[in-house]
Design goal:
Elements lengths: L3 H6 L3 H13 L1 H4 L6 E3 L1 H4 L8 E5 L4 H12 L3 E10 L2 E10 L2 E7 L7 H15 L3 H10 L4 H9 L5 H11 L5
Helix pairs in contact: 6-9, 7-8, 8-9
Length: about 180
């Protein structure tokens, strides 16, 4: 997989702006100890005007991470920080707006095991096989579907789209 930040630099105007905002915020450096990785629609070029910048993190000490995130980002517009359980794991989820980009930071387990990362790998493989689907995914997203729902619709997958996409990726050996 090509470096996600290189993709932003060589992408469309919104991707280049996203790169500049991420670098200006300094989030990759400030949260370096938590292995930050940008996932989701921006690296794949399937973003819409409503897409956020999803940065996943890994922390063994969620309380320490929460304190650092509050110190760094709590003054930004629409800042929220919550703990919730996703797939039987406690997760820290943070949202805020910086320079008109919505950010979502999420931490719970090693980044290469998180669904956001795995979905991005799977979606990239699908788009390499079916490049004409890129515009269809964007269209479905503009109609209100999330990215996983859009891919599942195109693939004819039923059930929970987050799980269905993971199973599809395993069956096609896109992920282990």
């Amino acid at each position: 997989m090509l470096n996600v930040y290189e993709r932003l630099l060589t992408g469309d105007k919104q991707q280049k702006q996203a790169y500049e905002v991420i670098m200006h915020l300094n989030v990759l450096h400030d949260l370096k100890a938590y292995n930050p990785i940008l996932c989701g629609t921006f690296p794949l070029g399937i973003h819409t005007s409503k897409s956020d910048l999803d940065i996943i993190l890994h922390s063994k000490d969620l309380r320490c991470l929460e304190q650092k995130i509050k110190r760094l980002y709590s003054h930004h517009e629409s800042f929220t920080l919550k703990r919730k359980n996703i797939r039987e794991r406690e997760v820290v989820k943070v949202n805020f707006i910086y320079q008109s980009f919505s950010f979502e930071l999420c931490a719970n387990q090693p980044v290469n095991e998180q669904y956001a990362y795995l979905h991005m790998i799977i979606e990239e493989k699908i788009l390499l096989k079916y490049p004409e689907w890129k515009q269809k995914v964007i269209h479905f997203k503009q109609l209100g579907m999330n990215t996983e729902e859009a891919f599942c619709k195109l693939l004819g997958l039923e059930g929970d789209p987050f799980e269905a996409l993971i199973q599809y990726g395993k069956q096609h050996h896109f992920i282990a």
